[in-house]
Amino acid sequence: MSEPSEHKPVLLNASALAESDVGSFEWDRSHNSCFLTVSDDGRSIEWDSRKPEGNDVIYPPVWVPASTRLHLHSGEFQWDFVVEEMAHAQIGVGFMLLWNVGPDWGIFGYLGASPTAWSYDPSTGDVVYNTDSIQSGLPQFVDGRAGVVSIHLDLPRHAEGSAKFRVCDADTRCISLPKGAVVLPAACFQKETQRVRLAGYERS
Length: 204
Hints:
Blueprint: E1 23-27, E2 36-38, E3 44-47, E4 64-70, E5 75-85, E6 91-99, E7 102-103, E8 117-121, E9 126-129, E10 132-135, E11 147-155, E12 161-167, E13 170-171, E14 175-177, E15 183-189, E16 195-203
């Protein structure tokens, strides 16, 4: 017997959402709350070294994913990931396409490990997609600690979209996105004390 179509994973389409329904510009407190702490205003998130591990956590993970409460579509958007501390380790900030069953994080929880996620790693200056670097030689955070990664999305409701990262006034090449894409801004952490703040959100 074939699986009912409503249970098959398909990319979420903007037509399934009201144009005004894009979620809220804040981190999702419920995602990996045993590791991550969100500020009172919802804008900053940190892998808190002081936070006790949950009873079901046997060992620290390689990567800790973090989701926002946004689901962007039907417009142009931009915002900043203000990396306040990367602790001289890898960190990923970027976005994912949403499926009807939720986001696909791929292996290890690394943002950019699936074919529907893109991550900027300011420790190496790479855009990572499906575990591979698709653009390299881009600006890095020279002090290994702090900097800003900006993202611009063009998401037409009934046409193909595009995205690009900006770091140190340098834009990456445009990334093509499918028609009616719904996008989840997200991040991933590799080391305790890493902290990222959301800022500069605009919709046009």
